[in-house]
Design goal:
With about 325 residues, the chain is of the alpha/beta class. The chain folds into 2 domains: about 110 residues, 3-Layer(aba) Sandwich (Rossmann fold), CATH 3.40.50.720; about 180 residues, NAD(P)-binding Rossmann-like Domain (Rossmann fold, 3-Layer(aba) Sandwich). The protein has 13 helices and 12 strands. Strand 6, helix 8 and strand 7 form a beta-alpha-beta unit. The protein is elongated, with a radius of gyration of 22 Å. About 40% of the residues are buried. Bound molecules: 2-keto-D-gluconic acid. The site of 2-keto-D-gluconic acid has 10 residues, from loops.
Length: about 325
């Protein structure tokens, strides 16, 4: 059918989404075109929907090259790589994949917090390296239950992290752009005050220029030599050079990091530290959640083509 909406897929997303895009939407795969620029020049005006991911993004130049574009369906809850302002200015709907990953990302935040406090990585290496028998008892670690948990960014993921605090009898406070009166947790109007109060500070806010290096040297200083930082959001939110300096000087207790600046890979200073637990950006990376995220990319497109509205718009 010549009047069928033309869906353009910018990059591979995952097996389920890729298959659905191919079979149900007959999506054109931009990265497989011999000359992407030439394809856009010839067919850009026919494209009404884009499927992409937070990894690939969709910038303002590409949006400008697609004059008939009406919806962007992106894989991932983050959308800092998508020019949402440019899209919204033209009435183009942008959809991400929220909600379905909240629990798994919150689970990983807790895994990192527990691992950093109880030194699971170092303890695991201690046993593997034969030190248990040779050197005896492992050094003492830090209690988690009953302590103070600070959450930076009480969105859907932040709230899922905070909820888990109840099972550990933790008092929870948070900082963000605005207080959330619908929650039982205390709001700290400044991040400095939250860091000073917290035993554990978990970063769960969006990335992008607005939150860049929000967790500064002074915030880490306020968290203190017994404090532990956990980041499951974006590496850009933390001043990583300051973090490394603080850890090296013993002015911060430890860190659990699923994300770092300049991914993939992590700097040697972080890899070498026994006070740091690292995971390779796997917050949402369970089979169950990744499948749900891929389904939602397709469901957003289906909903848009059926009703003119995506299910989970970015605002
Ligand atoms: C992705 C994420 O795994 O949803 C997001 O925004 O960060 C994760 O779910 C990540 O973008 C993969 O690079």
């Amino acid at each position: 059918r010549t009047d069928a909406p033309l869906v353009l897929q910018l990059a591979p997303i995952g097996p389920l989404a890729d298959q659905g895009l191919r079979e149900e939407f007959a999506a054109v795969r931009l990265w497989e075109q011999a000359d992407a620029e030439a394809w856009l020049a010839a067919h850009g005006a026919e494209v009404t929907c884009v499927a992409t991911s937070v990894r690939r993004g969709c910038d303002a130049a590409l949006i400008a090259a697609l004059p008939a574009l009406r919806a962007i369906s992106s894989w991932g809850v983050g959308f800092e790589t998508i020019a949402t302002d440019a899209a919204h200015a033209r009435g183009i709907q942008v959809a991400n994949t929220p909600d379905v990953l909240d629990d798994c990302v919150a689970d990983l935040a807790w895994a990192l917090m527990l691992a950093a406090a109880r030194r699971i990585g170092a303890a695991d290496r201690y046993v593997r390296d034969g030190h248990w028998r040779a050197l005896g008892e492992f050094p003492l670690s830090t209690r988690v239950s009953g302590k103070r948990l600070g959450v930076l960014g009480l969105g859907r993921i932040g709230a899922a992290i905070a909820r888990r605090g109840q099972g550990f009898a933790m008092e929870v406070r948070y900082h963000g752009r605005a207080p959330r009166p619908d929650t039982p947790y205390g709001f700290e109007p400044s991040l400095m005050a939250l860091a000073e109060w917290s035993d554990f500070l978990i970063v769960a806010c969006p990335g992008g220029p607005q939150t860049r290096h929000l967790v500064s040297a002074s915030v880490l200083e306020a968290l203190g030599p017994r404090g532990i930082l956990v980041n499951i959001a974006r590496g850009s939110v933390v001043d990583q050079a300051a973090l490394i300096r603080m850890l090296e000087e013993g002015r911060l207790g430890g860190a659990g990091l699923d994300v770092v600046e300049d991914e993939p890979g992590a700097p040697a200073a972080l890899r070498a530290s026994d006070d740091v637990v690292l995971t390779p950006h796997v917050g949402s990376a369970t089979r169950e959640t990744r499948e749900a995220m891929e389904r939602l990319v397709l469901d957003n497109l289906r909903a848009f083509l059926r009703s003119g509205r995506v299910l989970t718009p970015v605002r």
